[in-house]
Amino acid sequence: MTNYDLTSIGAVSASAKLAHIRANQELEQSSYNAAWLHGYADALTNVADALEHQQELMDSIIGCMGEQYDSAELYDILHNALAMSDEDILSLGFDLPQCHEYDAEISRKRPKGRKFALYER
Questions:
Q1: Residue 92 confidence class, pLDDT cut points 50, 70, 90
Q2: SS3 sequence, the chain?
Q3: Cα-flanking dihedrals φ and ψ of residue 60, to 5°?
């Protein structure tokens, strides 16, 4: 059986297309399997459409937040109040200095010199 990826809006849309293709490949279109696949594909399409509108709303809200708050306040809201990781914040398109402080702190703690330790047997 095909695995359908439902981790994002794009993945749900792609899975809906894949389910439609798979349903149309059934030899007997009146079979239970074909009917189930068509129903599943239609349900995925409906979910993708609904999620797309929600994503547009969230993008607008986050865009407004980016315009209203300075980087420290925005980072506090996204990271502390909404429990978003630095990677998630960066993926939204915010290049906040607070997201890079952790990376800089880690790189200062790493020992300088060889990157790999070689071990002899």
A1: confident
A2: CCCCCCCCHHHHHHHHHHHHHHHHCCCCCCCHHHHHHHHHHHHHHHHHHHHHHHHHHHHHHHHHHHHHCCHHHHHHHHHHHCCCCHHHHHHCCCCCHHHHHHHHHHHHHCCCCCCCCCCCC
A3: -65, -45
Token pair for 96: 């906040």
What mean pLDDT, rounded, does the chain reach? Answer: 80
Residue 120 confidence class, pLDDT cut points 50, 70, 90: very low
Asked whether the beta carbons of 41 and 20 are under 8 A apart, the reply is yes
Q: Distance between CA atoms of 17 and 41, rounded to whole angstroms?
A: 7
